Amino acid sequence: MEISVKMVKELRDKTGAGIMDCKEALAASNGNIEEAIKKLREKGLKTAERKASRETTEGIIESYIHPGNRVGVLLELNCETDFVARTDDFKELAKNLTMQIAAAKPDYIRREDVPNEVIEAEKEILKNQALKEGKPEHIVEKIVAGRLNKFYSQVCLMEQFFIKDDKQTIEELIKSYIAKFGENIVVKRFTLYMLG
Q: Which of 54, 77, 103, 143 is deepest in the core (most CB within 10 A)?
């Protein structure tokens, strides 16, 4: 199938990926835009995994105050170079993350940050719920594991679905920017302020 300039432009507009990456993804997916997006996301995930160990000492502090001045967020978002930190795309990512935190109110960045005592307490609650629902003892552990994943998706920023696109998690969103910039990007810390 012939890959037109219009198709490449449409895919670039949707993903922000480079021209050659878009052409390759479209060629590999026979011109199917949705399939090409999946291929670019997969490529982005692989790129992000390779860059995950690289040091991030540059970045920005982004703030967001929700209309009504009752909710505010401070976020430190790091990258590898000052050049990337000053780009509009990086600043847009930081702003989107602060709005995500204000809207979804995560407690932690990733599941590894959740204290063990919090996990154990949640497991106990979930186990008791499953038993009260009359679930057989031998499948309660599987039920608890599934519900614990749901718990993580509520309290961990990286596992939440993006408020502007519920088809991707925050982790996938950040990995798409890692692929776009060719640099590692890390949410270092955030603080959510709520009046009262």
A: 77
Cα separation, 25 vs 11, in Å, equals 9
pTM of the model: 0.71
User: What per-residue confidence (pLDDT) applies to 12?
Assistant: 73
Contact 185, 56 (CB under 8 A): yes
Q: How many CA atoms lie within 13 A of 63 on its CB side?
A: 6
Domain 5-51 matching CATH 1.10.8.10: the answer reads yes
Phi and psi at residue 74, to the nearest 5°? -120, 135
* The CATH fold of domain 115-154: GTP Cyclohydrolase I; Chain A, domain 1 (1.10.286)
Residue 24 is inside which H or E element, if any? Answer: helix 19-28
Least confident of 45-54, 69-78, 185-194: 45-54
More confident residue, 29 or 87: 87
pLDDT > 90 in the chain, percent: 51
Arch. (CATH architecture) of 58-109+156-194: 2-Layer Sandwich (3.30)
